[in-house]
Every structure is written in structure tokens, then in C-alpha cells.
Task: inverse folding
């Protein structure tokens, strides 16, 4: 797929870009997804391109919430499918969640292609291709979802989610777990739990936390109780502002 | 081209995205250009999506440098051609510069398409299609340029330029004027003058400054003398860090 040597200082970042460009060629990613990724790249840059301790705390709380959920669902869009399909499938297995393809720029063809990628990584029974329910308050195509999946879910993991859709899910009374690099986005500030991290780092971290908390209900309870979204987002934003100033002094 | 109402609070930003997505479909913009635009969007967001007073000071100095130049050239890439072709042509007319198409991901077809767009907006004799010189220190395709244009220019305006190319031009002894939303990029920190602003705002501002300073050599001299790149970039970055913290308190 690529000629980028693993020793390249920006290897991880360049690989993510290549995966998205490939995804665009394959009809999985839309052009708007590339622009959105660029915005995320910049936030990741001033975050330090690492999983911060705030992201780790949010991830532990998120793992606890997934384990507590009765009907957890992971919502997958084009960028997520292009960036880390294997990790999404693994998470759905360890946390026993459903997977539903949910697209902002929906077409049946894109849903089918994304489903195929997930299935090729071992997913079973991916939802979203034949929607039979609607998320209230969204435009026609954006509202479509599966009754068995997102519509009746109690907890939805929404990596790289659009603000309108994130808010609409919250209005439906669902608990949501966002993965978003912009700590000030509507998605970040409206979700039950927000992990400010690159999705390719966040999903493996979440898998590890689910595995860790699976047998330890007490630790899971503590992780959830200790987590305060607004305080967490505040610390993340302060860290970013601090890093931005530090770049100055170099 | 679009259904976005002018009253939409994010109208300008959405139009820029649409122009780039159109440019991608037309083969002018490459996918990597969309990711780069996304990074810029984020910086613009924390800049306040406006032309700051630092950008205004840099723009005045840039106008003075263009007016002083013996062989000024504007380097145009796919994103610039998609975002503000008419403005680029107008600037080349008021500042009496050449225009050369210079691409990071070069293909003759893309150069030809970009040339056609510029000509459709009134440009005469656009350079770049038949390169006959090389910028030392760059890979084969990236090094190509025109002897009559960039190769023999004394001042080159490089909106949205890649860091390698920007540094190579400086090593050739050229004075460069960068337009870049990332005040910490190699392009920003290596150019003679750096305007940290969205290119669609920066080019009209530069046109106005060229027109203003054209008949006033003394004011032009003062604008150039007063400008200090590192101080200017420091103030911009401080402003961004401050804005980031302010978002916190909302």
C-alpha cells in the first residue's frame, strides 16, 4: 500500500492519510471526510499526538459504561471504516456490542462497502444496510437507522460523529461515548463520555480497558464515578493551549 | 453550485469546502489537498476566522516587497486555483507579477487544468506547463519549474506551500511571501514574510495593500522596515492559544 518507512517520524500520521485517500478511491470515504480528518490532525498535533491521561480516564469510564450497557452499539462511518476496521470489530467482540453503519452522506452503496470491510475483518451481522427506523430531528437520509441497533440502543459509541447526529442521539435519551479530537465540538460537549484522542489510538485503548474492567465491577464503578466530562474537556483544552504556547518557544 | 444560504453562520467556510470538493471532482485538487485544507480550517477557527492585525501588518510588508521586486512570481497550486483564481489573477495584474503553476503532486494534466482556470479569469501567459529548470534539492517532479518564472524570480509569493518547496526556494536565495494558517509550519518559519490568514481573505487584502502602497514609496518602505517575522508569528500564536482558552470559558 505504501512506501513510507516505519522509521519516518510521521509514519503513523502518514499511514492514516494514505488509508483515507485509499478509502476515497474505494468509495468508502467522502471528500468532506478528508477535510474533517485534516481538522482532527491539527488538534492531534497540538494534543501532542499521544493518548493523554485525560483520554485514558475517559476511556476507562467509557469501557465501564459499555460493560454496564444492555444494548450497546458502535456506530461506524466511512473514516472509521477506513482507519481502523479490525480494531472496531475486535472491540465489538470483547465488549459484546452490535455494529451499525451510520453515515452523514448516506448512500446504499457506501453502506454496503463499509459493511463488506467490517465483515472481512470478522464482523457478524452488521446493521445499517436496511434501515427501518428514524432518529427524530434529523433530515431524511441522516435520520435513517436500524430498530434493532441504534434506535433501541441504550449506549452508543460514536467515533468521529457529526454534531447534529450526536445531539439527536442524546435527545433520544441515549448515553453516548464520543471519540473526537476537538474538545470544543458539539459532539464532544454533548456526549455522556468524550474521549479526546485519535481514533486509531482510542479504540485499542478502549479494548484494553474493557478487557481490564470486565472482571472487576468495583473498578468499573469507580472509573465511571470519577469521570467528569466538563472537567476532563477543560483539562484537555488547557493542555492544548499550553502546547501551542510551547511551540512558540522552540 | 450550492444551496448554502448566504445567511448561514458558516457560509464562507462551507463555500470554501464546496469549491475544494468541486476541484477534486474536476481533477484540480488532490485528496491530500483536502486534508491540508482541514488542518488550515482548524487553525483558522482558533485564529477567529478573521484577518488579524498581525496578518494586516504582514500583508502591507508583503505588498511593499512585491512592489520592490524586479521579477515577482505568484506560485499557484491546486487548492489556490480552486479557492480564489479570480483574486490571484487580479493580484498578478495590480502587482505586475508572473503566475506559475507549481504542484507538489505534479501531473501535466493538472497543470493544464489549473492553467485553463487562470486563463478563464483573465490571466495571460501562465508559466509551469513546460518546465525548463529545476529547484535544487527537491525530488524530480517536485523540482520542476520555469526558467523565466520561479527559477529566475527574486520574490515568490507562495500561498499554501509545502515546507520542502518553501525551504528550497529560500536556499536558492529568493525572498518568499508565505500565506499559511499554521504559524509553526516550516513554510511559515522560513519565509521572508508570512501572512497567517485564510488565502481567500489574504489575497484581496494583499491587492488592497498593493494598490494603496503603489504611489507611496515612503509608506511602503516603513511597512517593510516595521515588519518582524518572528515577532509577528509569536503574536499570532499567542493569540491562538488565548482563543483556545477562551473557548473553554464559554
Result:
Amino acid at each position: 500500500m505504501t512506501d513510507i518507512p516505519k522509521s519516518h517520524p510521521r509514519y503513523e500520521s502518514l499511514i492514516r492519510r494514505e488509508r483515507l485517500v485509499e478509502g476515497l478511491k474505494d468509495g468508502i470515504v467522502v471528500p468532506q471526510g478528508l477535510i474533517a480528518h485534516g481538522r482532527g490532525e491539527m488538534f492531534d498535533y497540538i494534543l501532542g499526538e499521544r493518548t493523554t491521561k485525560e483520554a485514558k480516564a475517559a476511556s476507562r469510564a467509557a469501557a465501564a459504561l459499555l460493560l454496564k450497557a444492555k444494548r450497546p452499539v458502535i456506530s461506524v462511518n466511512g473514516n472509521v471504516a477506513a482507519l481502523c476496521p479490525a480494531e472496531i470489530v475486535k472491540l465489538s467482540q470483547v465488549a459484546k456490542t452490535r455494529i451499525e453503519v451510520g453515515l452523514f452522506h448516506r448512500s446504499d452503496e457506501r453502506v454496503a462497502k463499509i459493511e463488506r470491510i467490517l465483515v472481512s475483518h470478522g464482523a457478524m451481522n452488521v446493521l445499517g444496510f436496511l434501515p427501518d427506523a428514524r432518529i427524530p430531528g434529523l433530515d431524511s437520509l441522516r435520520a435513517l437507522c436500524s430498530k434493532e441497533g441504534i434506535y433501541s440502543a441504550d449506549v452508543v459509541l460514536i467515533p468521529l460523529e457529526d454534531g447534529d447526529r450526536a445531539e439527536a442521539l442524546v435527545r433520544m435519551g441515549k448515553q453516548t461515548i464520543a471519540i473526537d479530537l476537538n474538545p470544543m465540538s458539539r459532539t464532544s460537549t454533548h456526549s455522556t463520555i468524550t474521549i479526546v484522542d485519535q481514533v486509531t489510538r482510542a479504540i485499542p485503548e478502549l479494548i484494553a480497558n474493557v478487557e481490564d474492567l470486565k472482571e472487576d465491577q468495583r473498578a468499573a464503578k469507580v472509573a465511571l464515578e470519577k469521570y467528569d466530562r466538563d472537567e476532563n474537556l477543560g483539562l484537555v483544552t488547557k493542555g492544548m493551549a499550553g502546547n501551542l504556547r510551547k511551540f512558540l518557544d522552540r
Summary: The mean pLDDT of chain B is 94. The longest strand of chain B covers residues 72-76. The interface with chain A takes residues 17, 20-21, 24, 31-32, 34-43, 45, 182, 184, 234, 237-238, 240-242, 244-245, 247-248 of chain B (CB under 8 Å).
